[in-house]
Amino acid sequence: MNAEDLGYLPATKLAAMIKAKAISPVEYMQALLDRIEAVEPKVNAFAHVAADQAMDAARKAEAQVMAGEKLGRLHGLPATIKDLAITKAMPTQMGSKIYAGNQPAEDAPIVTRLQAEGAIIVGKTTTSEFGWTGVSHSPLTGITHNPWKYGYNAGASSAGAGAAAAAGYGPLHQGSDGAGSIRMPSHFCGVFGLKPSFGRVPNYPVSTNDMTSHLGPMTRTVADAALMLEVMAGPHPLDYSSLEAWPAPYGARLAEGIKGLKVAYSPDLGFAKVDPEVAELVKKAVGRFAELGATVEQVATPWAPPGPDLVRFTWPAHLARLIPHLAKWESQMDPGLVACIKESVSVSMKDYQLMRDTKMAYVSSIHRWFQDWDLLLTPAVSVAAFPAELLQPPHWPQHPWDWISWAEFSYPFNMSWNPAASVPCGFTQEGLPVGLQVVGRRFDDLGVLKAAAAFEAVQPWADKRPKLG
Fold this sequence. Notes:
With about 475 residues, the chain is α/β, with parallel strands linked by helices. It has one domain: Amidase signature (AS) domain (Amidase signature (AS) enzymes), CATH 3.90.1300. The protein is about 35% helix and about 15% strand. The chain is built from 15 helices and 15 strands. The strands form three sheets. Strands 1-3-2-8-10-9-14-15-13-11-12 form an eleven-stranded mixed beta sheet, with helices on both faces. A two-stranded antiparallel sheet has the order 4-5. A two-stranded antiparallel sheet has the order 6-7. Strand 14 and strand 15 (about 435-440) form a beta hairpin. Helix 6 (about 160-165) runs parallel beside helix 7 and helix 8 runs antiparallel to helix 15. The protein is globular and about 60 Å long. The mean pLDDT is about 95.
């Protein structure tokens, strides 16, 4: 295999090859690093590449294989960590010049869990500044380019993770999602991304955005995501909101299918604007679920109307924590982020508490609605990729900070904590990927994975690669 083919190997296959001594962890890692070096100028998915550390770890992994030692589930496999997650061996800069060179003293639990199973951390992937937006640029790292079209949005805030998965930088990439930041880059880059149920994967330091940030896998196949989630998930004492339950055997149950499930479909949640080409690809994908034996019905979502006002209030409010940075750093920050932070100044404690009352009623109505449905299908995002220097597509309503107008399908399930995935479902005439969102009942991460795997079996996507050379 050449370096490109090796970079696109799924984790499930690579793990088996390493354990069978069919491939050397050292040779694989060198080929992967060579590919990253060759392709990165066209993508810019990394905020930091830890090449020397990765090679040292690969040599150790190979020695353990040759010595016949017990090997972890991810032994010798490369993985990337988003640059919002803390790492003691690599800088954590959060896409901001404010934190340039910042070196934490400890690892996030996801890092130690991946490494405990033998994964090798190749580097830190790019993020929009403090993860504030769905567009793949930051003042610190510049534009992360969509592998399918240079200069175009790769999605964010897990920008580098999505681009790295699409570009063949290995199989496993960690993302985080506060209003769509796993699902949006997965949609734009044509890869699979799962936002698990809130608390499924421990998050430390614990976020202060009213418990809407979720950590999850971004991969090229559903089986790889299931494997990565099994490793990352489970309770942890540093995250008081982490779920008590350890993960189910996701990978072993992917083939169970969706026959007999009740599946709801909403093309717009009753209010969202969607580009016609995206809408048509999603509609065709929904038809596949009926072919797979599910009962599919286009339905109303009566819980949805409060959503836009909620997110446009809470998004700036939760960024108020950055106000102290403005005095020194405003001129070096993302202008859209600055505008969003400044909007939070007028938010009173009374206003915030009243809006939280509305949010809790909104969340309850979502869960009541899901009592009648096993899954909900929607577009993952309203538009295909657009120029990455813009906050909104040129044909979209313009606003100083409101990128959410083209991402109305994501945030409801951050607030409600439901598992939700973006599943590649086709390409526009321009050759840009589109994602279908699959949402499950809270705690039913397995149900979302099984549905995604069933769709993948009849409409596979992992064989499709952007032309990067």
